[in-house]
Amino acid sequence: MEMRPFGKLIPVDVAVRRVLAAARPVAVQEEVPLTESLGRASAETYRASVSVPRFARATWDGYAFRSASSVGATTHQPARFRVVGEVFADRGFARRLRTDEAVAIAAGGRLPPGADTMVIFEEVEKSGQEVSVPRFVRVGERIAARGADFRRGQVLVRRGDALDPATVGALGAAGRTHVRVFARPVVSLLPNGNELVVPGKPLRGDQIYETNNLTLGAIIHANGGISLPHPPLPDDPDQIEVAVREALARSDLVLLTGGSSVGEHDYAPEVLPRVGRVLFHGIAVRPGKPTIAAESRGRLVIGMPGHPTSSLSNSFWLLSPLLRRLGHLVGPGWTEGTCRLARAGDHPSRDLSVVLPLSVADGWGYPVYHGSHAVTGLRGVNAFAMIPPGSRTPRRGQRVAVHLLPEPIGTVPGSIHRG
């Protein structure tokens, strides 16, 4: 069996910088209903067409009146008001209140003319049509002033901002029903290997079911992309090249899994230089060393290891940031934190960074790894640590910096110590 040596391995941070620098964010835009916009990146800057609230309104249920009429009020000498009406969220009070008058008002109700403050029901005593207020109530208490949320013309979302639930609500409160967003990045998945079979078909001889389409497809979806799975490709460089070129024509990113190493039947290092400029071949990391990347007319092809855990591990620190860059989403796809190791980690390497997958709960990190070949090797992982080359073996109880994976990528419940 003929083997071809790797070139010079590049550090993890260099690999990430190179693919992000070569990534061309999606330019296509589309208009979607607000109900379908969550998590998308806004393609326009939107300003409020109205002020919210449009008028001063109550934030609690209670009584509205003039603040000046409560000056000097105490529990022994309360200010007294005659209740002259009711205000609901959909029905106001027409005339101006006099100094000794109050109205019962529901949360969201429009403040009557002449009123400038309110108290909640629990603070007053009511006797017939009169209420007693036992303290001075300052102007504006329990009141949302006109434009307190946002004013007409105020920027609600800027181009490139991710639409979170509060922003979606703000756009709706300003009267919008649709929003223009950047299209989701389309990612073609090309598994490679003579032994691979699409799940659901019968297995023969030494065949196995292909799973990288499923695991990487889930990562793509979780990071806002659309996956285009392809049936397994045979170990044939010409067929691989044709499939890669066709995938480049219909997608923003191509992921070729399998065939990226240095073995006799590993053809990605032969094919990718034909279709584009090679950014690197080989990353100083374990697992995931046999990774290759190329750029072709502004689009990327990344050859990932065929072993399921190696491929999935790479997706945490390399693929997620890339997908988010393509989709105009800010951040790498994880949050920073620390945890204590519940048991010692794997032996580090003198020359390679080591990805330490973890299940973090209650501030403790439990190493999870069953080998790069195992489909279940990363089950239960919700964080990972990147152990630098030349480090000592992580000890039990040692505090380590970790990257916490969001749901649904990381799904184990637990807390994490920040900082």
Strands, helices and their partners?
Layout: H1 12-22, E1 29-33, E2 46-47, E3 57-58, E4 62-65, E5 79-87, E6 101-105, E7 117-120, E8 125-127, E9 130-133, E10 143-144, E11 155-157, H2 165-173, E12 178-182, E13 186-191, E14 196-197, E15 208-209, H3 212-222, E16 226-229, H4 237-250, E17 253-257, H5 268-275, E18 277-281, E19 285-286, E20 292-296, E21 299-304, H6 308-326, E22 335-341, E23 353-361, E24 364-367, E25 383-387, E26 399-404
Parallel strand pairs: 5-6, 13-16, 13-17, 14-15, 17-21, 19-23, 22-24
Antiparallel strand pairs: 1-12, 2-11, 3-10, 4-6, 4-7, 5-9, 8-9, 18-20, 20-21, 22-26, 23-24, 23-25, 25-26
Helix pairs in contact: 1-6, 3-6, 4-5
Low-confidence stretches: none
- Fourth-tier CATH superfamily name of the largest domain: MoaB/Mog-like domain
- Which shape, going by the Cα principal axes? elongated
- The structural class is alpha/beta
Task: Enumerate the strands of the largest sheet in spatial order, edge to edge or round the barrel.
Answer: 7-4-6-5-9-8
Number of strands: 26
In DSSP terms, counting alpha (H) and pi (I) runs of 4 or more, how many helices? 6
- First-residue to last-residue Cα separation: 49 Å
Which value, in Å, is the CA radius of gyration?
A: 30 Å
